[in-house]
Design a protein that fits this description.
Strand order of the largest sheet: 2-3-1-4-5
Mean pLDDT: 86
Number of domains: 1
Strand content: 5-15%
Radius of gyration: 19 Å
CATH architecture: 3-Layer(aba) Sandwich
Number of helices: 14
Number of strands: 5
Oligomer: single chain
CATH class: Alpha Beta
CATH topology: Rossmann fold
Distance between the termini: 45 Å
Shape: globular
Low-confidence stretches: 288-295
């Protein structure tokens, strides 16, 4: 039997999905480990070599013997059943009652998620697209105009199209802003927990960093994740507005034009406008007292 009410986090890369996952993991009822990248796996996981490689990576991510993961999977042929069994066992191991899975493309796979887990909750993290693109330029990944636009449209665009088709609202779907999470963590996390039907825990607004996640990913993949490197630090607001110093108006203009050409100009403008409102509200209420750190 599948888990009744799992939680899925999605959103465009470099939008704060890892931060939300780590903060939710501090809740005593929620198990939120490193992303499984389950959507990158084939719909069927019968290929022995592919399954072995995937489980070996997860064994390091979750600090559990690979054989144990293989036993847990129980010969499941579809990736959804395999994922559910693995995360359910890992949640119980931690004494938790509900699991959270974070993979960016969850935001573009809402129909698939809700078909398999009808009572799941999907959290879509949105960030100012200017800062998202600036982060990509900074790390030298997907900064080519067409590549960035494709990834952005396949996450943010697809999720918004799905929401429109659903009538503009759905009980299993909630959007939240990265800027609000950083500038007003308590209010934002209270809203998230209310959506999930979980009780408030003060520790969720006091994120101190998770260096262990960075080390596990480096051990498993041999790569240094800039996202997890920053996640090793306490919550701070230094990444809000980075676009102005990295790409500026000149660097952003062609990106905005391309996203508008693909039919998402209104969404882009709305997200940018929301950033300004969130920042203004934080300044008005004095919520910007977070630790400043060099990006």
């Amino acid at each position: 039997m599948r888990s009744r009410n799992p939680v899925f986090i999605g959103g465009m890369f470099k939008s704060g999905t890892s931060l939300l996952r780590a903060m939710l993991g501090a809740h005593p009822r929620l198990f939120a480990g490193l992303e499984t990248q389950w959507l990158a796996e084939k719909a069927q996981v019968q290929d022995i070599g592919e399954r072995k490689a995937w489980l070996e990576r997860l064994a390091i991510f979750f600090d559990v013997p690979r054989q144990k993961l293989e036993e847990t999977a129980g010969g499941a042929l579809d990736i959804e059943t395999c994922l559910d069994r693995l995360l359910s066992v890992l949640a119980r191991r931690e004494g938790k009652f509900r699991w959270v899975e974070k993979t960016p493309y969850n935001a573009g796979s809402i129909d698939r998620i809700l078909r398999q887990w009808p009572h799941a909750k999907v959290l879509h993290v949105l960030r100012d697209p200017r800062d998202v693109y600036a982060s990509m330029v900074e790390m030298g990944k997907w900064s080519e105009l067409s590549v960035f636009a494709r990834h952005w449209c396949n996450t943010v665009g697809v999720a918004r199209n799905w929401l429109t088709a659903a009538g503009g609202t759905h009980p299993g779907y909630r959007e939240l802003r990265y800027e609000a999470l950083v500038l007003a963590p308590e209010a934002t996390m209270r809203s998230v927990l209310a959506f999930l039907g979980e009780t408030w825990e003060p520790r969720l607004s006091m994120f101190d960093g998770r260096p262990q996640d960075f080390e596990r990913v480096r051990q498993a993949t041999g790569k240094v994740s800039t996202t997890l490197k920053r996640l090793a630090q306490p919550l701070n607001e230094s990444r809000i507005g980075i676009w102005s110093s990295i790409i500026g108006e000149e660097g952003w203009a062609p990106v905005q034009a391309e996203l508008a050409r693909r039919g998402y100009g209104d969404i882009v403008q709305s997200l940018i406008g929301d950033t300004e409102m969130i920042s203004a509200e934080a300044a008005r209420t004095g919520c910007t007292g977070l630790v400043e750190q060099t990006p």
